[in-house]
């Protein structure tokens, strides 16, 4: 599988497992898990796709963002976070580090300092432990701006945080008072 094929397939999986399982009539349980055999069978009905177990396994194991996870016996798969559909990822609240980072585009800065960071159509706001990851995220939207979030203060103020399987910190909203550029 070439890098271009992996990227295309990963985008397809993200779209189906995070946003639109109905595209291939895929059933997700309340926690976002899909049956691997069903995913493989139904992906072959899509004229642009078609995934084998070997390809699926390669994507899960080599995806640099660790977007997907199998259950222990690899019979079920789900996206780690980033869903726009209503599922329960069963995250347990955790204490974050003192600071986390959020990558965004220059064009969003005024709105963020006015309204805070909103989850919009996602289930959570995504935060990174390092500036490098936040920069990569921000680059997808234009000239990257890295914001520093005082997550220790947020946590002390009673705001909950969760840590996904692929080490992305999640919260519901970041008020502008906790943000600095």
Write a brief structural summary.
With 181 residues, the protein is of the alpha+beta class.
Polypeptide structure, described:
This protein is α+β, with helices and mostly antiparallel strands and 181 residues long. The chain folds into 2 domains: 3-79, Arc Repressor Mutant, subunit A (Orthogonal Bundle), CATH 1.10.10; 99-180, ADP-ribosylation fold (Alpha-Beta Barrel), CATH 3.20.170. 31% of the residues lie in helices and 20% in strands. It contains 6 helices and 11 strands. The protein has helices at 3-19, 36-43, 53-62, 109-115, 131-139, 151-156; strands spanning 34-35, 68-70, 76-79, 99-105, 117-118, 125-127, 144-150, 162-163, 169-171, 173-174, 179-180. Strands 1-3-2 form a 3-stranded antiparallel β-sheet. Strand 2 and strand 3 form a beta hairpin. The chain is globular, with a radius of gyration of 17 Å. The N and C termini lie far apart (40 Å). The mean pLDDT is 92.
Q: How are the SSEs ordered, and which strands pair?
A:
Blueprint: H1 3-19, E1 34-35, H2 36-43, H3 53-62, E2 68-70, E3 76-79, E4 99-105, H4 109-115, E5 117-118, E6 125-127, H5 131-139, E7 144-150, H6 151-156, E8 162-163, E9 169-171, E10 173-174, E11 179-180
Antiparallel strand pairs: 1-3, 2-3, 4-7, 5-10, 6-9, 7-11, 8-9
